[in-house]
Design goal:
Blueprint: E1 3-7, E2 10-14, E3 20-24, H1 38-46, E4 52-54, E5 61-63, E6 70-73, E7 78-85, H2 88-97, E8 110-113, E9 116-121, E10 134-138, E11 142-154, E12 157-166
Antiparallel strand pairs: 1-2, 3-5, 3-9, 4-5, 6-7, 7-12, 8-11, 9-10, 11-12
């Protein structure tokens, strides 16, 4: 199950060792996690899937295969996964200030948004997710592409970034 950690005032989530699931909030109750759906995650990582990917026939995405400490900057429609940094202040400051248009993004999967997304440990059944174990954030309805990049943000500071891009 995901655990919420607060470092220097910002809430971060960590998993028990697997990747994060991003899904429309309305679909979370149907995600069975370790009770069945997590097998799809295991199969994909065994096939070498390490980037953001969609579970077939489901409107959910898995954010790679790393259990990285993660937070959300809603103002930038950005999910930040902490690769390394000397401090939370460094990673947040640099993630907030980086020119997102200067990054070489890998275009990722497309999801249908119902107006809000949940970010939770992919092993957690959606019905077991709590306010403390997940992020819920608003996003416009319609098709949304999840682009990803691992970027150096400053000396001794790097993150995996996932941005949500509305498809018009």
């Amino acid at each position: 199950m995901s655990m919420a950690r607060t470092t220097e005032g910002r809430r971060w989530l960590e998993t028990e060792g697997g990747p994060f699931l991003l899904a429309p909030v309305s679909l979370l109750p149907s995600w069975t996690g370790y009770e069945g759906d997590y097998d799809f995650v295991i199969d994909a990582t065994e096939l070498g899937q390490s980037e953001c990917y969609v579970i077939p026939d489901r409107n959910v995405a898995i954010l790679g295969d790393d259990p990285l400490r993660t937070t959300v900057l809603e103002s930038r429609s950005l999910i930040i996964q902490w690769v390394y940094s000397n401090s939370e202040e460094d990673i947040l400051k640099n993630s907030s200030e980086i020119d997102l248009d200067s990054i070489v993004w890998r275009e990722g999967p497309v999801l249908d948004s119902d107006g809000s997304f949940g970010l939770v440990d992919s092993a957690t059944p959606g019905v077991e997710a709590t306010e403390e174990s997940m992020f819920v954030f608003e996003f416009e309805t319609g098709k949304v592409r999840i682009d990803s990049a691992e970027v150096p943000l400053a000396p001794h500071c790097a993150a995996k970034l996932h941005r949500l891009v509305p498809i018009v």
